[in-house]
Amino acid sequence: MDIMNNTKHPIKLVLADDHQLFREGVKRILNMESDLEVVGECSDGIQVLELCNQLHPDIVLMDINMPIENGVVATEKLKDIFPEIKVIILSIHDDESYVFETLRKGAMGYLLKDMEAESLINAIRSVVAGHAYIHPKVTGKLINQLRRMTYLDEQGVAGNGAVTKEAGVKYVHMDNSPLTRREAEVLRLMAEGKSNKMIGEFLYISEKTVKNHVSSILQKMEVDDRTQAVIIAIKNGWVTL
Fold it and tell me: What SUPFAM superfamilies has UniProt attached to this entry (predicted)?
């Protein structure tokens, strides 16, 4: 389903990629949309910082493998200097380590270059609206990477959060989490790819109750789907896998 941009002005984009033909193709696609405008393009991480200082775009589409300064380093510097500018990584790499590292540095999206034009456009609009957007092909790999990370020490304590263990599920109750303990349970099981029916069976609650929890989770986190909710929750440390 298309996501429309409801802002009065076109979304301004900068393209950072060292392949000119690729930039030209993406630019042509994006400029066909009335609410999108490519205002600048460059081929390395140093240039993208200079362009952002001059043009103040809404979005930077950033490649990872660029000369002089790669996209990971450029993303970190850009978010430090221009925190209001959103970064979407557009890469050929589907390795979860790339995805996780760029998200840690502040990127709001990670897309693969072989995605369809319509999906790219919707991803841009979604990120401008404040949502995270991860290419479906790498979502599963990202979750597996996050599972391997250690959020808890040997005593089961992480930071200032209190940990509860129940039915084999771990929770970290952080002060900034909008979720109840039960919602954190449901979200953790969503991250494992369980359906509403499977979650209900695991937690011994009805499928209808699970649906209500899922709706509450999406509403509290101001996201449109399960994937966005899982990514944001894990990034913020609200649940652990």
Answer: C-terminal effector domain of the bipartite response regulators, CheY-like
Q: Which of 140, 155, 178 is the C-terminal boundary of a domain?
A: 140
Q: Are 107 and 27 members of one domain?
A: yes
DSSP 106: T
Q: What pLDDT tens digit does each residue of the chain (241 aa) get? A: 455 555 568 999 999 999 999 999 999 999 999 999 999 999 998 999 999 999 999 999 999 988 888 898 999 999 999 999 999 999 888 777 778 788 888 899 999 998 899 999 999 999 998 888 888 778 776 666 555 543 333 333 333 444 443 434 344 445 567 888 788 888 888 877 778 888 888 888 888 889 999 999 999 888 888 878 877 877 776 765 5
Strand order in the sheet with 59-62: 36-42, 11-16, 59-62, 86-91, 109-112, 133-134
Q: How many folded domains does the chain comprise?
A: 2
204, exposed or middle or buried, with CB in 10 Å at 0-12, 13-18, 19+?
A: exposed
Place of tokens 């380093």: 73
Give the CB-side neighbour count of residue 53, counting CA atoms within 13 A.
Answer: 9
Which among 99, 121, 140 is the end of a domain? 140
What is the domain range of residue 210?
170-240
- For position 185, which CATH number holds? 1.10.10.10
* CATH code (residue 24): 3.40.50.2300
Q: Are residues 131 and 45 in the same domain?
A: yes
* H helices present in 45-180, as ranges: 45-55, 71-81, 96-104, 117-128, 136-148
